[in-house]
Amino acid sequence: MRGVDKADMLCALHPIPFRSKKWYIRIAWRLFDRMVINSWLLANHLGKQNVNWKNSRLCDFKTEIACTLLKGSVALQRPALVPIQRRQHSGSDTDENNRSKSDRKKRDLTRTIPRILRYDGNEHWPKFVKSRLRCKYEECELKTQWTCSKCELHLCIQPQHNCFVAFHTKQ
């Protein structure tokens, strides 16, 4: 009975607020809640084997799923803001000049796109815009006028290298 008690406890932590007189709607919401909790438990169990996995809380996991489902609609898209960490200058420019280009840290994205949204392969279309900004793919330094319609990021589309495809495919 340990599994049943734990499942009931996790359902009671963050219940889905629903009210319905129809019995089948209550069952559907309960099943959906159980699916989310089971996937969270499975992700945490499998995440212990992966070093890069960040252990998340159930509430954060449910929020991320809700945001991903809402991102499916173009009308409800909103950029996720992430604070930028600034480096402190040591005051000596000689150390900076001695460092080679390969030793420098790659630039971080100012916005992070959830992996589920980035690799879902659904409704990622190149869109031409007037503003010419730097490509947000880590390995590219060119400026481009193409953005992803779903991710809202500037990505290159060129015959030599296609950052748009490289950004949306797992490596």
From TrEMBL:
Superkingdom as given in the UniProt entry? Eukaryota
Identification of the protein by name: PiggyBac transposable element-derived protein domain-containing protein
Q: Where is the composition biased (Basic and acidic residues)?
A: 90-106
Region annotated Disordered, chain positions: 86-106
Species of the source:
Didymodactylos carnosus
What taxonomic lineage is listed for the species of origin? Eukaryota, Metazoa, Spiralia, Gnathifera, Rotifera
